[in-house]
Amino acid sequence: MITNEMTLIQRIYGMYKIINNKEPLYFIIIENVFGNHQNEIDIIYDLKGSHYGRECTKEELKNKDTVRKDINFEHDLMRGNISFEIDVDFKEKFDTQLANDVEFFKDNNIID
Question: Which residues, including other chains, have CB under 8 Å from residue 47's CB and lie 6 or more apart?
């Protein structure tokens, strides 16, 4: 990340273990990928590339802040509920950076 400042890979700031009532709780602190733009985001999807357990219930979707999953994304896209508008310059930079990050993972035998 030192040589690749524009990486899309999330930075991990710490990995911790807390023992509460003799039960360990493990967690990590990662970079907030939304930065100062959280109030501009209408819908958040957590996409894993899988269908197993990857759909929110109708009850969960009643809450506008629910993070949606893969199947919800596919349904929203097919129904025309979401669309994407990406600036050409941004797309080129994004595609280049994504390719760089993929190469980093491949070169280091990392699966994300």
Answer: 69, 70, 73
